Amino acid sequence: AVVSTQSGHYGRGSNGWKGHLMIPVPKATISWRLDATFDNRILAGDFWAGQKIWKGDKKSVTVLGNDWSAKQKAGSVFKLGFTVNYNEHGPGVDFSTLEITLCWLDGSGCSTCNVLDTECTGAFIAAEAADETTRTGTIQIMPSQCYSKMPNITLSFSDVIFSGITVPADFSSDCAGDSCVVSSERGLEVNEELQFDVCFPAGVMVLGVVFEGEDLCDVQPELFEEPTLAPTLQPEPTEEVLPTEESEFPNGCARYEIDSTWPNGWKAFLHIPIEKDTVRWRIDAEFNKPVQAADWWAGLPEVWSPTRSSVTILGKDWSARQAAGTVFHTGFTANHAEGDNVYIKNMRLKLCWAEGGKCTVCDIVKEACSSGLTLSSTATGESNKMDGVISKTITRCENDMSPITLEFDRPLKRLIVPRGRYVAECSERVCVVSTARPMRVKTGDELRIKTTAVFHHEKGALVGLKYGSEDICHEK
């Protein structure tokens, strides 16, 4: 393999310069050729060891080795000197391109390289040569996303790789011409620094390291913020929802009101606003423990589960039809084993309209989240604020944190999240938290986001929490 390196210019004056090329010769040559172009017209130029063929514009030249210089010995360094002269009062002149081609005495062909090429930095770290026949270095890549299998890495060299390259045992390589493709079955995580050593013939430079279509030479890897809570970040509120009067139905569905209790039961009322004329309705209720006896005043039949911990109630003929603009008042009594703490975990209402036959569903009662959010005391003691920390262990590698959806049992003004890292958008009782800019997360990361929910009036409860499509409100 051949690499030509320009040793630099010396004797540079106001109208020209003199220099030389140091060309290592790995195999015996039978001929050589140099092709050069300049960025501006020159007056005169001389390459001392070859026959010069100038183009008419004096901006490019081809130099062919003389008989005595064409044959160079294997292992030698061929020194090719030159001078360049240009107009003293005109623009300066330098090389635009400079290529040298060496043709081998053994008939194996020729090799061309760009003298002005510079070795890759950033993705390649060169090591000191171990011997005269090989070079070694380290390829380093920091992926910006996750891969179950490492994408191929293409290395380009300054010359043809005849004998291939050497990579670690868990990698493989396939070389053709002046490039080699490195592959592996291993996976990659976000921000995981991938490093492996590569050994290749002496006299060759690494010119390119291409990963996922991007040449990483001279590119510094971008680091992404870790998905952890930064207490020093100032809180950033969401856009405040316009204040409203305290609604009779803060959950947007109906009001559940406990009227009286006794050691083994309670009586409660339901107040249901009717938006349009109804043709039927349905209530599904779930208790935390079995109920021994219950009476729903305006519904038949009552269909209980075998464990008597859930029930479905259908509106009777006389109660099924409710007029638009009214409030339907009903209720129930429930009795349970004395000493048990029994309550309704979830209660869902379905109203079906007389016109069009369509139905709407909403939650009268929804159980507060038991996981995913750790509540903390509010320093100010304000009754309309609820502080907490969203906690989530990441189970899969993602290029950006999935949106987190929080649902409360009543409307809120805004949700405050760490400024600059997260943003929150709220509408009525639901807020969605996302990243201000992409934040890569990987398996095992502990996500913690400090939040403050500000309600219009009395603070409510968190009844829904999702990470993407995953329900983390009641994780076991």
Architecture overview:
This protein has 2 helices and 36 strands. With 476 residues, the protein is an all-beta fold. A hairpin with a 5-residue loop joins strand 5 (50-54) and strand 6. The radius of gyration is 39 Å and the shape is elongated. The chain starts with a strand and ends in a 5-residue tail after the last strand. The relative contact order is 0.11.
Low-confidence stretches: 1-11, 220-246
Number of strands: 36
User: How many angstroms does the end-to-end distance come to?
Assistant: 63 Å
Using only C-alpha atoms, the radius of gyration works out to: 39 Å
Structural class: mainly beta
Which key terms come to mind for this protein?
single chain; 476 residues; mainly beta; five-stranded antiparallel beta sheet; 36 strands; 50% strand
What's the SSE blueprint?
Layout: E1 5-13, E2 16-24, E3 29-38, E4 44-47, E5 50-54, E6 60-65, H1 67-70, E7 77-85, E8 95-104, E9 110-114, E10 124-126, E11 134-141, E12 153-157, E13 172-176, E14 179-183, E15 194-201, E16 206-211, E17 214-215, E18 235-237, E19 255-262, E20 265-273, E21 278-287, E22 293-296, E23 299-304, E24 310-315, H2 317-320, E25 327-335, E26 344-353, E27 359-365, E28 373-376, E29 385-393, E30 404-408, E31 412-418, E32 422-427, E33 430-435, E34 446-455, E35 462-467, E36 470-471
Antiparallel strand pairs: 1-2, 2-7, 3-6, 3-8, 4-7, 5-6, 8-9, 10-11, 11-15, 12-14, 12-16, 13-14, 16-17, 18-31, 19-20, 20-25, 21-24, 21-26, 22-25, 23-24, 26-27, 28-29, 29-34, 30-33, 30-35, 31-34, 32-33, 35-36
